Amino acid sequence: MRSTAEWIGKSDDDRPPAYVRLRVFNRYGGICYLSNSVIRPGDDWELEHMLAICNGGENRESNMAPALVAPHKDKTKADRLLKAKNDRVRKKHIGIKKPRTIRSWRRFDGSVVRAERER
């Protein structure tokens, strides 16, 4: 049997070609990586990065698995939330903070009332 080289994207935005999708699908036996259900003909599925690119994963064949669309959306949402939290913690650690806002509101007559800053 002939061995083939692993596909590695030149950038994070490169889409894997069809033959890579087929190899990944066959490697997992047509089973969704996230829900462990069989991917049937006609089901919408995508290649999923097991370790998301935004969280340090690589755009390569060994980091991909087949996933049905609905579970993939849920995992992507969780990955983005994790990335946002990591960014907030990192910014706090290095001293970058959001600017303080001055609280204000409008009265029924339309005039603006600004709160006094407490120190």
Could you please describe the fold and organization of this structure?
The protein is an alpha+beta fold and 119 residues long. The chain has one domain (18-114). The protein has helices spanning 18-27, 69-94, and strands at 45-49, 64-68, 104-106, 112-114. The strands form 2 sheets. A two-stranded antiparallel sheet has the order 1-2. The model has no long low-confidence stretch (mean pLDDT 89).
Reconstruct the topology from this structure.
Layout: H1 18-27, E1 45-49, E2 64-68, H2 69-94, E3 104-106, E4 112-114
Antiparallel strand pairs: 1-2, 3-4
Biggest sheet: strand arrangement: 1-2
* Overall geometry: elongated
Number of E strands: 4
- Biggest sheet layout: 2 strands, antiparallel
Strand portion: 5-15%
Number of helices: 2
Number of domains: 1
Distance between the termini: 73 Å
How large is the radius of gyration?
A: 23 Å
Low-confidence blocks of residues: none
Provide keyphrases for this structure.
alpha+beta, 119 residues, 13% strand, two-stranded antiparallel sheet, 2 helices, 4 strands
